[in-house]
Design goal:
The chain is α/β, with parallel strands linked by helices. 43% of the residues lie in helices and 20% in strands.
Amino acid sequence: MIDEALTEDIGEGDHSTLSCIPENARGKAVLKIKQDGILAGVEVAEKIFAYKDSRSIFSLLKKDGEAMKAGEMAFEVEASIHSILQCERLVLNCMQRMSGIATLTRLYVDRLYGYKTKLLDTRKTTPNFRLLEKEAVKIGGGVNHRFGLHDMIMLKDNHIAYCGGIENAINEASKYLQKKNMDLKIEIETRNLEDVQNVIAVGKGKVLRIMLDNFTPEKVTEALKLIGEDFETEASGGINLDNIADYAETGVDYVSVGALIHQAKSLDLSLKAVII
């Protein structure tokens, strides 16, 4: 990912740097925090500089997951000046985006304090940046849901529609796993209490988790009474900072919130040269 990002940015050459900085010059830079929030991406920054310059010296001043205040410094790096200037924007883009996600995630996690409910992310991510966006959710205190289509079976409304119903979808998915000798968990989306009852009737021993999609907190409570302890439960759809505690009060195991990533705003950071 680092290689592709640098290639995209540098192209045939960083002519701004090549034109005025000697190739063998070394220097220092610091990451300045300009906005309050939760810091994320420091470890990523270290890897980027090390990838570009194996002789780089990275000094950590704050850790991922720590609260940050405007005016603080996150790290200092000593490296080839060419490397510092060529990595600057990639480091900032990653850290600003990740810190925004971690900060928003922490707001949601704080609303769940005292409840058993855990906060999940989704696949509503930026193409080719999912790895770092989901890492930012973890740094903020959330829990990663499946990473992609390959590490869990999630039977959503379109799968169910194409397959001819909940029973067919569950049975076909279960047979597929047995045939392939694969140990993947199955989750299935439900849209109403009738769907929940259908999953309960055919899914025991096959389905791990029932997703309650666009259920109100009141309907989630009704569904949980039907489900009991036979399945994990997840509420999804329309969950935000204003109502997340209402969902947690139902006792649902998980809530998933796509907004953690697609509604997060990047925080303001800057990389500044240190002139001695």
